[in-house]
Amino acid sequence: MSDVLVQISNAVIEGRLKDISDLTNTALSSGLTAKEILDNGLMPGMDVIGVEFKKGKKFVPEVLLSARTMQASLGILKPLLAQTGEKMAGKVVIGTVKGDLHDIGKGLVGMMLEGSGFEVVDLGKDVSPEGFVNAVKTSKANIVAMSALLTTTMRSMGYTITALKESGLRETVKIMIGGAPVTSDFAQRIGADGYAANAPAAVELAKKFITSK
Amino acid sequence: MIEPYLQDKNIPVTFMEYGFHRTPELMTPALQEQLDRLAEPSVVIIGYGLCGNGLANLKSGRHTLIIPRADDCITLLLGSYQSYMTEFNAEPGTYYLTKGWLESGSHPLKEYRDLLEKYDKETADWIIDEQYRNYKRIVLVAPNQQELEAYRDKAGEVAAFCQERWNYRYEEHIGSDDYVKKLMTVAHQLSESTDDFLVIPPGGEVKQEMFWR
């Protein structure tokens, strides 16, 4: 892999905001496309952070700085991605579930989905089941992404799925869930279509959803 | 809170270190190690709730485990699951201060001071705001008036910081030692799980869903 991509990955992992703009521009002028920088520089960096965080080797401040670093690079790449990047046939409604105000992970996933070509409707935090239902109705989204950070609030993911069923929209969307206490077991139990352990995994899952449709 | 119930009794106690709620993935193996170290088959009272899945997949081995059916320590401090739900519904965006968290320095003010030592002010400001800007209320909770008063000054300092920065309102709440009392005095006699306690027989395993009511 190109040296500058490794440097971009490392800058993301170490949260070196001050270096990322120069590195991104260097990568672009060396002929790399925005998509290559995203997929092979930024994503692998966030992947490492996600894994280290789960293991307790990185903490929230470090993850935040990594996300901020990635966001700065994405800011440069975004207009280019819009011009040349592949468009995903996916529209994602994303939000943190009812009673839960933690939006860091959700924001990160939204940002990366957008960078990867998805259209993203971010409902914010504390989103009720009805809030998700209405957003799916009006946006005609084909993916619903829910986040929760608490074992007390993750149950609301199940209520949202029930609400989608009751409104007849369940079959029109794929549902993915994530957040610290969420597991793939839980996803299966409440009838979600998938679970992602971190932001890059969420992007992979969303891509899988739209290609398997 | 458990100290009064240990006096004059010959109950061996192991205190775990503070802070496992931040890394639940490290909590399960740490608890497992302590359990496996007990040679005699025993009835083990666990002073944790589900704690962000910190207890999930814990195996009882040759022991019987008695576990409060609570999501976290706040339920134990408030005295019941019902009290917790009342508080949660009143204001989901509540940050709790307790004797334990104040003493161990697990609160936004201490975190901010730590961040200032590690990062420049702009970065520290950004990190702390990202983490705490969504809460609305900060509550000092103690099981009795005496403890509340003993920690009022310390809590007030943290609350003033949060109020100035994010406009939190400060409240004090006298909880109850009912839950802890039951845990320490009668729960060990249970032969099967109840609304308030899980009983994990030898050869069993703790599961996330067991905590749901």
* Share of helical residues of chain A: 55-70%
- The end-to-end span of chain B amounts to 25 Å
- Mean pLDDT of chain A equals 94
Oligomer: heterodimer
Strands of chain B, count: 6
Indicate the overall shape of chain B: globular
Largest sheet of chain B: 3 strands, mixed
The largest interface is: A-B, 29 and 28 residues
Strand percentage of chain B lies at: 5-15%
Write the layout of secondary structure elements.
The complex is a heterodimer of chains A (213) and B (213).
Chain A (H helix, E strand, L loop, with lengths): L2 H12 L2 H13 L4 H21 L5 H25 L6 E6 L7 H12 L3 E4 L6 H11 L3 E5 L7 H12 L7 E5 L5 H7 L3 E2 L3 H13 L2
Parallel strand pairs in A: 1-2, 1-3, 3-4, 4-5
Chain B lengths: L23 H14 L5 E3 L18 E5 L4 H6 L2 H10 L3 E4 L1 H6 L3 H11 L2 H12 L4 E6 L2 H22 L2 E6 L3 H8 L11 E4 L13
Parallel strand pairs in B: 1-2, 3-4, 4-5
Antiparallel strand pairs in B: 2-6
Structure, explained:
By secondary structure, chain A is an alpha/beta fold. Helix content of chain A is 59%, strand content 10%. Chain A contains nine helices and five strands, in the order ααααβαβαβαβαβα. A five-stranded parallel beta sheet of chain A has the order 2-1-3-4-5, with helices on both faces. In chain A, helix 4 packs parallel to helix 5 and helix 6 (129-139) packs across helix 7. Chain B has 213 residues and is of the alpha/beta class. Chain B has eight helices and six strands; from the N terminus they run αββααβαααβαβαβ. In chain B, helix 7 (145-166) links the parallel strand 4 and strand 5. Chain B starts with 23 loop residues before the first helix and ends in a 13-residue tail after the last strand. The relative contact order of chain B is 0.18. Classes of the chains: A alpha/beta (213), B alpha/beta (213). At the A-B interface, helix 4 and helix 8 of A face helix 1 and helix 6 of B.
